[in-house]
Amino acid sequence: MTTLTIPTLETERLTLRAPRMSDFEAYAEFCGSDRSAGVGGPFTRVQALDRMSALIGQWHLRGYGRWMIADNANDEPLGVVGLFYREDWPEPEIAWSVFARAEGLGIATEAALASRTYAYDVLGWETVISCMMSDNARSIAVAKRMGACPEAPIQHPVFGEMQVWRHLSPDQIENGGMEAYA
Fold first, then answer.
1. 59-115 pLDDT, tens per residue?
2. Which three-class secondary structure state does DSSP give residue 131?
């Protein structure tokens, strides 16, 4: 028998926790919408359940993964965030997707910052990237708010041209952050 532990993180407004079946309707709605285009969607409900299951699988296979973002006040699912490493990605990344109800509230930034802190403080990573479609202005804005710096884009066989944003390292964060990329 294999036991899997997915840690729970809390921020001021959010809980980052393991996905639950009770999150599926919100997740399937996101996956079936045009909002999921940045992650290869839209997807069918069957595909959405497979993708939600994969969120948990990465924790088992790699020892890290993505969390469901939930509202601290009522446990409503608001999106997905965390550490992700596709086999065809240049290196591990912080990935985020927020559901329509959470758009424009700073949820992605708050959750992604907690994920980065986990990667550095718990996993001991020294660097991390985020990859996004070139036309994903909202995700680019999140990367900028986090102090990430653009690198050369990559050509992905499924997604086409992807922007790569390098996050501040633990040392850069400790030394004040933004001037490291000035």
1. 999 999 999 999 999 999 999 999 999 999 999 999 999 999 999 999 999 999 999
2. strand
User: How much of the chain exceeds pLDDT 90, in percent?
Assistant: 83
The two beta strands, 77-84 and 93-98, are antiparallel
3-state DSSP call for residue 102?
helix
Closest CA to 129 of 114, 145, 116: 116
Residue 153: other Cβ atoms inside 10 A: 13
Residue 84 to residue 91: CA distance in whole angstroms: 9
Q: How many Cα atoms are found within 13 Å in the side-chain-facing hemisphere of 98?
A: 20
Please state, in angstroms and rounded to a whole number, the distance separating the CA atoms of residues 50 and 124: 30
Question: Which residue in the block uniquely carries the two structure tokens 């959750």?
Answer: 111
Half-sphere exposure of 99 (CA within 13 A, CB side): 20
Residue 123's pLDDT is what? 98
State whether residue 176 is helix, strand or coil: coil
CB 145 within 8 Å of CB 107:
no
Q: Which two tokens mark 71? A: 């509202």
